[in-house]
Write a structure and sequence with these properties.
Layout lengths: L1 H18 L5 E3 L1 H10 L3 E4 L3 H5 L7 E2 L7 H5 L8 E4 L4 H12 L5 E4 L2 H7 L20 H7 L6 E6 L4 H16 L5 E6 L4 H7 L6 E6 L2 E7 L4 H9 L3
Parallel strand pairs: 1-5, 2-3, 2-4, 4-5, 6-7
Antiparallel strand pairs: 6-8, 8-9
Length: about 240
């Protein structure tokens, strides 16, 4: 009886496993570059039209992840060919890739670290003639390094307008700037508008935070931060 139950259990496990979609294959920029040099592939940029216009990989198509009809258009891609997806950091393209896999696409590839890594490696991008570069919270290298010499501690938030976690934390960052005015300088830097600086600092994802005191880095963090964590760091220097 036990052997019978064991056999039934194993069959159920096998059935569940066979029903699960295959995983999305992850690529680094150098791997994708090699593929693009040797093959013609379906390459889709899932960023917004503005992001796409300001720099995209050559021959990439564009589907806006935030558009209401995104999923409908995404599923029009042919199933019999590999699909390669990318965004800025790999987050949106990973979500898009998962949609494809769940709908029966078998060869789906995601640029794991996005076009930010691609540009950090000096790989070519195409900028459209009608591109309108973002200039809000733009910072050049000379401004940045001068900022670090402030007598007060300096807390820097590297963000991007398209970044969900960045937008989620923006009200908190703004309120901290007000609460600690005159004690700690809270500075926002738009990674999209400050690409030369981001490349120089080798920043590959946002949100990304750095804090300096007396020209020395005293705190760094990549990803979401709580108000409690930030105020704890701030208060340790007051």
């Amino acid at each position: 009886m036990n052997r019978y139950l064991y056999s039934i259990g194993m069959l159920l496990v096998a059935a569940i496993a066979s029903g699960q979609p295959e995983k999305v294959s992850q690529l680094h920029s150098s791997e994708l570059q090699s593929i693009l040099e040797n093959e013609r592939v379906t390459l889709i940029d899932v960023r917004t039209p503005t992001e796409f216009a300001n720099g995209h990989i050559e021959d990439a198509g564009q589907l806006n992840y935030y558009a209401l009809d995104f999923k409908k258009k995404l599923l029009l891609l042919p199933k019999d060919k590999p699909v390669y997806l990318y965004c800025n950091t790999g987050y949106r393209s990973q979500r898009a890739a998962e949609i494809l896999v769940k709908n029966g696409y078998e060869n789906v590839y995601n640029l794991e670290r996005g076009i930010m890594e691609w540009e950090l490696l000096d790989l070519a991008v195409v900028v459209e003639p009608d591109a309108r570069p973002d200039t809000k919270h733009k910072m050049e290298s000379d401004e940045y390094f001068a900022l670090l010499e402030s007598e007060r501690p300096v807390f820097i938030d590297f963000y991007a307008p398209w970044c969900g976690p960045c937008r989620q934390m923006m009200p908190m960052i703004d309120s901290l700037k007000t609460a600690y005015a005159g004690k700690i300088d809270v500075v926002k830097i738009n990674a999209d508008a400050s690409k030369r600086l981001v490349k120089e600092l080798q920043i590959g994802s946002v949100p990304y935070f750095r804090m300096f005191h007396g020209g020395e880095e005293v705190f760094t963090h990549s990803g979401l931060l709580t108000r409690e964590k930030v105020t704890g760091v701030f208060d340790s220097f007051l």
